[in-house]
Structure formats: structure tokens, C-alpha cells
């Protein structure tokens, strides 16, 4: 079965309903680039081979701040992940070394050790060596948004993803884009913010710190085992996230490349770009925090190529 780039964990908002009379404006240039990055992503995991997901039941509606919800998934989302491949793929293994470097709660000042600085540098070095990030870099250089000097580009990536800032104004430097997107944070102990990475989801689920409650999707966008984006509901450290969104199976370099391009090609505080990737139409959201990344995630607009089928009528 051809891979569908689509299992998307999306915030269910009114903008998801796209009618014939209000079709979204597709960014064709970025669609072309991101499809190229998708094909270059040789490190991504293969569904049914490197991992197995069981989506189970549709999660119910809950409000933010809810601590108890009905569980529509008796089993974990990930029933299997090829950990040998995780640990033997350089970008994945170096990602794994970063996941325990952060304080979970916002408002708690981050203390960065020399070992953690070294782990961050090694991760960025590995990402920069991939064809995915090399292609993204060439694109950004062609648009005069990045220097062709790899050392300067690495510093740019560090500023975007790893520069510490105040997410909670009354605290010290307590957050960064990488922590928010790839690790996840707890705000005031009652709200999960960020947490848009499938590897962290799998590891936290395996460690019994996370409980998958079921998928979230519109009636006609039912998830499948080989989708590459998912909307889901889960609890983490006994706090519920009503809807989360994440790519599934993709490499860390792919996610960083896509969101870095959007971040650097726009200057608005909040940027929403609609693209077609593989058989999915999605809105990619990037929110800035000064010169660094505040958050980034996908929102599904259409799957199973229905946006293509509509145009053919």
C-alpha cells in the first residue's frame, strides 16, 4: 500500500471545515519542496515494518484542564517500534539523548550542563549531514534566508530550536522550541503544551507515563495504520491533552527542516501555510517566540487525496 502522509493530530477548529467555495490557497512552491524532502527522508520509519500503531476508538470531546476522560483505547497506540533501528540511526539516537535534558514544568529554570551542550551539538551535526537538511539549506540559501556557511547555518538552527527563553514571564529561562515541540511541557500542572513528536510519545507510553485515549478525526478522515500524521487524545503525568498533532514515523531532520523553512520564510508571529504532501493536504502552523520557535505542528485539512478528487469533478 502506498504510504499516505497523513495521520494528523490536529486541533479541531472551525477552520478545518473547508468547503468547495472556500478552498485553501495552496503554497505550490513549498508543496514541491516538502515533497522532495519527504522522498529524501530515508531515515523515516516504515509502517508495518519498523513500527505498528493501533488507533482503536474515536476519543470524545473534552475541555482543556480536564483530568479524567473516557478511555476509547484499551491498548497503547504503539504496539511495536523497531528500537534497534532507532538506536542505530544517528539522528534518532542523538534525538533520544536530548529527551531527558529538560524540566517538564514551565516556570522552572533550565540548567544546561556541558554534557547537554555537547549532546545538542552532536544532534545538530547529525541533522546537518542528512540529505533532507542539506536540501532545505540549499533552498534557504537560494532565498537569501541563510548563509551558505554551514557553521553559520548551524548557529541559526540553534537559535531557532535550542535558544532558551521565558515561556512563563515570572520565571527564568524555562523553555525552547525543541523542548516544546519534541519533548512537551506541563503548564501550571494542569495543561499539556507542545508535545508533537511521535518518538517521545512512544517512549512515554512505554514508560507508562502516557496513556493514549483514542484518535481525533472528522467523520470522513478515519486514520489508518500507515498514515504519517495523527490527531489523538492522551494523558501525560495524569494531565489530559484534548487533541494533539504529530507526524508519525518521520525523522527528526524532516520535521526540523519543514518547520525551519516556514519559520525563516515568514516574519509574522503566527504563520499558517497550506501544502499538499503525498496524499494529504495540511496546514502547517509555526508560531514565533522572538527570533526563536514558539511552537510548530500540522493540522489536517484533507486526506486520502479527496482534495484532488474534488478538483476532478
Strand residue content: 15-25%
Which residues sit in consecutive blocks of at least 5 with pLDDT less than 50?
A: 7-21
Number of helices: 10
Give me the Rg, rounded. Answer: 18 Å
Mean pLDDT level: 88
Ends: how far apart? 25 Å
Largest sheet: 3 strands, antiparallel
Which descriptor suits the 3D outline?
Answer: globular
> How do the SSEs run, as a string of H and E?
HEEHHHHHHEEHEEEHEEEH
**Helix/strand-derived class?**
alpha+beta
What is the count of β-strands?
Answer: 10
Major beta sheet, strand line-up: 5-6-7
Helix percent reads 25-40%
Describe the protein's topology.
Elements: H1 28-40, E1 51-53, E2 78-81, H2 83-88, H3 90-96, H4 114-128, H5 131-142, H6 150-161, H7 177-183, E3 185-187, E4 191-193, H8 198-206, E5 210-215, E6 229-236, E7 239-247, H9 252-265, E8 270-277, E9 280-289, E10 292-302, H10 306-312
Antiparallel strand pairs: 1-2, 3-4, 5-6, 6-7, 8-9, 9-10
Helix pairs in contact: 1-5, 3-4, 5-9
Can you walk through the features of this model?
With 313 residues, the protein is α+β, with helices and mostly antiparallel strands. It has 10 helices and 10 strands. The protein has helices at residues 28-40, 83-88, 90-96, 114-128, 131-142, 150-161, 177-183, 198-206, 252-265, 306-312; strands at residues 51-53, 78-81, 185-187, 191-193, 210-215, 229-236, 239-247, 270-277, 280-289, 292-302. A 3-stranded antiparallel beta sheet has the order 5-6-7, with helices on one face. A 3-stranded antiparallel beta sheet has the order 8-9-10. Strand 6 and strand 7 form a beta hairpin. Helix 1 (28-40) packs antiparallel against helix 5 (131-142), helix 3 (90-96) packs antiparallel against helix 4 (114-128) and helix 5 packs parallel to helix 9. It starts with 27 loop residues before the first helix and ends with a helix.
Amino acid at each position: 500500500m502506498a504510504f499516505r502522509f497523513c495521520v494528523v493530530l490536529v486541533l479541531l477548529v472551525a477552520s478545518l471545515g473547508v468547503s468547495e467555495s472556500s478552498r485553501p490557497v495552496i503554497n505550490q512552491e513549498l508543496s514541491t519542496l516538502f515533497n522532495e524532502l519527504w522522498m529524501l527522508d530515508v531515515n523515516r520509519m516504515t509502517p508495518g515494518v519498523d513500527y505498528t500503531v493501533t488507533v482503536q476508538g474515536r476519543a470524545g470531546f473534552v475541555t482543556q484542564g480536564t483530568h479524567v476522560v473516557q478511555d476509547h483505547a484499551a491498548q497503547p497506540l504503539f504496539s511495536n517500534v523497531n528500537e534497534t533501528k532507532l538506536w542505530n540511526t544517528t539522528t534518532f539516537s542523538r534525538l533520544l539523548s536530548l529527551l531527558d535534558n529538560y524540566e517538564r514544568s514551565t516556570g522552572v529554570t533550565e540548567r544546561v550542563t556541558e554534557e547537554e551542550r555537547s549532546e545538542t551539538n552532536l544532534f545538530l551535526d547529525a541533522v546537518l549531514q542528512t540529505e533532507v537538511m542539506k536540501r532545505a539549506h540549499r533552498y534557504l540559501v537560494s532565498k537569501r534566508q541563510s548563509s551558505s556557511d554551514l557553521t553559520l547555518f548551524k548557529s541559526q538552527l540553534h537559535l531557532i530550536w535550542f535558544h532558551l527563553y521565558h515561556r512563563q514571564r515570572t520565571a527564568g529561562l524555562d523553555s525552547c522550541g525543541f523542548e516544546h515541540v519534541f519533548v512537551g511541557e506541563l503548564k501550571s500542572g494542569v495543561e499539556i503544551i507542545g508535545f508533537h513528536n511521535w518518538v517521545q510519545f512512544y517512549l512515554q507510553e512505554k514508560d507508562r507515563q502516557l496513556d493514549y485515549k483514542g484518535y481525533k478525526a472528522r467523520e470522513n478522515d478515519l486514520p489508518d495504520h500507515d498514515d504519517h500524521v495523527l490527531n489523538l487524545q492522551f494523558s501525560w503525568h495524569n494531565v489530559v491533552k484534548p487533541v494533539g498533532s504529530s507526524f508519525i514515523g518521520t525523522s527528526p531532520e524532516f520535521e526540523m527542516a519543514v518547520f525551519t523553512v516556514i519559520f525563516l520564510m515568514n516574519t509574522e508571529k503566527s504563520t499558517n501555510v497550506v501544502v499538499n504532501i503525498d496524499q494529504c493536504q495540511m496546514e502547517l502552523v509555526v508560531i514565533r517566540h522572538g527570533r526563536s520557535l514558539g511552537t510548530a505542528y500540522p493540522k489536517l485539512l484533507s486526506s486520502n487525496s479527496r482534495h484532488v478528487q474534488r478538483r476532478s469533478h
